[in-house]
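Record filed below.
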Amino acid sequence: MPELPEVETVKRGLEQILDLPGERLLGVEMSAQKLRFSCNLDDLDQVKGQHLHSVRRRAKYLLFELDRHYLLSHLGMTGSWRIENESKKHDHVRLKLKSNRVLTYHDPRRFGFFEVVNKNDLENHFRFSHLGPEPVDGDEFSAAYLYEKSRGRKTSIKTFIMNQEVVVGVGNIYASEALYMAGIHPKLLAHKLTRKKAEQLVRAIKDVLNEAIFCGGTTISDFKQAGGSSGYFQNFLLVYGRGLEECHFCGTMIQSQAIVGRSSFWCPRCQKL
């Protein structure tokens, strides 16, 4: 499933291929096949004629900013956006633009969804009101914040940093990589995180996510950037998917185990519990 780096990559790609700001939205077409959640057709009528000002990202959501609304897009597992007038099988949303182009959402497995949100309601919207800070934008996600947030938390540190209420966008792959870089065992209980380790972990999370964004995301199976190309951060993974292989730094065999149902990878020497 696309995580923060993949969604950020799609956002940046859309910014390049769209004529922003000022592109005008002439209409929205939805396929008869439903996505994960249904979109209210009356809401779609409200956005006709509005101008498209920007494309934003909040957590794993894309937000197309209009005059009075946002078009919210979640990519699910196989969702992608492209500019193309010709429709294809598994195209579910078509945004008709004044420039005579069509921005199309394609999703073979239909786990993504598309909604219309009033601009004034965004921060209090049920999909956003509970979310933690952004890890790569702004200063809210800091070592002091993470340390204080971890007090009294008896869940594993890996589960803790994947909690979207703590910090957004740290998916399974990036959690494993960041913990390895910070020298923290994924099973460490969150409340045992020290201030020093919190500093190292915050730095590692930022570094891993920024590097993944630079590489255009991680393509394990279905992820596509805006326009259809794949990311290549998977070529630089240090532990994820490398069970029973040697650690790049100490030569110890990488171990793997499911933690709360998610595959986890670590070096028992570099990440002592």
Remarks:
- The first helix runs from residue 4 to 17.
- The helical segments are 4-17, 41-46, 143-150, 157-161, 172-182, 195-214.
- Confidence is low (pLDDT under 50) at residues 220-229.
- The chain is about 25% helix and 20% strand.
